[in-house]
Amino acid sequence: MATRTQSRTSSRSSSGGSRSGSSDNRSSSGENRSSSNRKSDSGSNRSAFSWGEGAGPIIAAALGGAAIGIAANYGRKFMTQAMTGVAGDWDEVLATEHKLTLAVFDKMLATDSTQTWKRNMLLMQLTHMLDKHAHEEEMVVYPALRDAGQAVEADQLNGEHGYIKTFLYDLSQMETDDPSWLEKIRNFRQLVAEHARMEEDQVFPTFKRNLTEEQNAKITGLVNKDGFWQA
Length: 231
Ligand SMILES: [Fe+2]
Ligand SMILES: [Fe+2]
Prior knowledge:
Layout: H1 2-15, H2 17-41, H3 55-85, H4 90-109, H5 116-147, H6 151-172, H7 181-209, H8 213-230
Helix pairs in contact: 1-5, 1-6, 3-8, 4-5, 4-7, 5-6, 5-8, 6-7
Bound molecules: fe (ii) ion (FE2) (2 copies).
One fe (ii) ion binds at residues 137, 157, 161, 195, 199.
């Protein structure tokens, strides 16, 4: 779990530009508020927490901006999850994510050591995709597998997620023009491809065969919900 947190943190810190940007905006508008309070309170007995006159439009604008930001974020999440969520049942959603992830590996393998910016962008994208996918499986599918008597398979798959995070960690410590970068990506892709094949060809079909229609729909709903929050 430690590596999961680590990879999540590194991906957020590198890819979450817009998120940290919006919190900067929030803190700067907070400063504006307190400075406007200070000005309007000079020489009066008003509470330090009361809003100055004329603050209404500023507050309204700030709240409006926040609402637009929240709506935009929800829209982005919706679009991201919709890309794989429309695929159908939970196992089809996850298989689509496997395919999209392997396509990112192929783009990485098509780069050369001069394309460091492109490699960094693709690595950031890969980290986010794998992080979201692992969360859906570790929080919904693997626990459901254990409850259904497939604990050995769930634990093996969960263990492999640890090695996937180890690859992400190693790559985050490596320069993207390192001569061994492509070799590392090639080995990483092989691990992810074999892991995905075991899920798609063996573990998930066995599990799905024994689900009622209702249980199957419930797991699809939970995977989509988890994916939405991780998007
Ligand atoms: Fe997995
Ligand atoms: Fe998977």
